[in-house]
Structures are given as structure tokens and as C-alpha cells.
Amino acid sequence: MKKIPMIALAIVTLLGGLLPAAPARKMIQVKGSDTMVNLVQILAEEYMGKNPGTAIAVLGGGSGTGITGLINQTCDIADHSREWKPKEIDQAWEKGVTPRFFVVAVDGLSIVVNEKNPVDQLTMAQVGALYRGEIKNWKTLGEFQEPVSLYGRQSNSGTYVFMQEFVLGNKNYSTDMKEMNGNAQIIEGILQDEGAVGYVGVGYLYDENHRIRKGLKVLKISKEPNGAGYLPTDGASVESGAYPISRPLYMATNGKPKGDVAQFLGWIVGPEGQSIVEREGFFTIGEGKYKAANDKNFK
Fold it and tell me: By CB atoms within 10 Å of each CB, which of 181, 199, 239, 240 scores lowest?
């Protein structure tokens, strides 16, 4: 073995000590919507696999938690399944935070029951009446003699707020509703409860083989009595608005995204990210108004 002269080794060591260390890359902190958490974790894992050295941490907790995190500058990206409230915008501006919003996917919020429930279709008004506690037994809607058992989310959830504003007419939920931590817990409750009804993001309907979970029934929803009902799994119906309980899913940043955050967001709304969105059961943003708004917010 050839020996390295001691003086040369000393110079290399000295130069190594003088060379500036490569700056450590900051971990991207993402926090918020439980409807989005599984999807964003998968997106983050695939992005990190393609971009070694990038670190992304994704936490749930609900849309309200993510929005508060961005306002308090404890995260880089807030995931949220509802729009920000005016008071949240005011709080952000008071703290010098200027939120920019990016639509990363579209959700057909799904009304689901146990497969033993014979009901196949409800109107928007009937869903609202169920969750306000005005319908106590399924026999009011047909022949099924079973008390209604309500499953929903906690008040920090964007989905809780979206349902209350959009389906319940801004009225209170029934005090009998079971407030679950996340979509997966709602699904598990419905599978064990023949009288159950719940609401979940469309991506949670599927098993590992991308089939509707065994024991679960997805209801058609119509806008009017005796009107045509549509399923949240039908992308064309969600995109056209024929399915009435659809919504965009957002990521928000403080100001114009830069550096690693901008690259991650750009990848999510690009072809690779959107193919994963579709694979995981949600709908893509398409080439229309959402893409145009995103392009504007990147500038």
C-alpha cells in the first residue's frame, strides 16, 4: 500500500477545516387537514425519493391546526379542506403573514352508511336533517327500522366546518353526533354500526386494491327531491357540479413560495403529483380555474 506523506495529509486536514460546511437544508414542515394527511404523506415520500436530501414532515390535526400553524409561523405549508375564515385572514395580516392558496386536489365529500342499510340515495336537505338531529330513525326515509347513528369530525376539522356551512345551513350539529379524530375512525365506526351514517373524503372509500371498502355503501346525493342522484366517485359528476358536495383541497404558504417549498408545491400540481392524487382516489385540478389561480400565486 502506498503511504501518504504526513505533510500532505496535514494540508488536506487543514484545508478541510477551513472549507465552509455545506448549509443544512431546512426540513419542510407541513401541517393541517386530516382529510389530506394520508395523501400529502404519500406525496412527500415519493418527492423525497426523487429528490435525495429533501426532508418533509407531514402532520395532521385538522385544517384549523394547520391554519393556526401558518399564522404563528410554526409550519411552512398549511393543508386545509375549507376556505380560511375572515378572522383568520385578519390574524395572519396582523402577524405579517400573507397567505397564498394553492388548490392541489378536488374532493367529492362522500356520505356513507353500513352496507346493511337499504337506503341508496338522499337529498342534500335529508343529509342536513340527519346531521341536525331532525331525523332520528331511518324508517322516516323508508322501511329500515334502525335508529340513526351519526358519525362526524371534531370542530377543528375543515370537513366539520364545510359540512356545517354547506349542508347543515350553518345550523348546529346534533349533540348525539360522535366526533371522531379522523376519516379512518369514521369508516371503522360505520362498518360496526348498522344504523350509522358518516362523511369522509373520497380517497378514504377505497381499500388497498382500490375497491370500495367491504361493508361500506356510498350514497348517491341529489340536489332536489326526486332529482337525479350522483356518486362522489364519478369524476365527471364532481367536476361538473352535478354531485353537490364537492370542494377543492388547499395548501397555503406565507407569501410567494420559494426554494424547496416552491419546488415541492410545483411538483404536486404538476403531472407527477397529480397522477398520485388520482391514484389515491381524489380528483385532479385539471386545466381550468384552479390551475390558473395556482399559476398566478406562484408568481
Answer: 240
Which pLDDT score is estimated for 55?
96
Whose CA is closest to 160, among 28, 18, 35, 24?
Answer: 35
Segments in the chain below pLDDT 50: 1-19
**Contact between 65 and 78 (Cβ < 8 Å):** no
**CA–CA dist 29, 59 (Å, integer):** 8
Residue type, 62: G
Q: And the C-alpha cell for 265?
A: 408545491
Q: Which three cell numbers stand for residue 156?
A: 377543528
Give the total residue count for the chain: 299
SS3 breakdown of the chain: % helix, strand, coil, rounded to 5? 40, 20, 40
- C-beta neighbour count of 12 within 10 angstroms: 11
133's torsion region: left (phi>0), alpha (psi -120 to 50) or beta? left
What's this model's pTM, rounded to 2 decimal places?
A: 0.86
CA-to-CA distance for 124 and 222, rounded, in angstroms? Answer: 6
Q: Pick left, alpha or beta for residue 187 (phi over 0 → left; psi -120 to 50 → alpha; otherwise beta).
A: alpha
Q: Which residues of 192-202 are buried (b: 16+ CB within 10 A; e: fewer)?
A: ebbbbbbbbbb
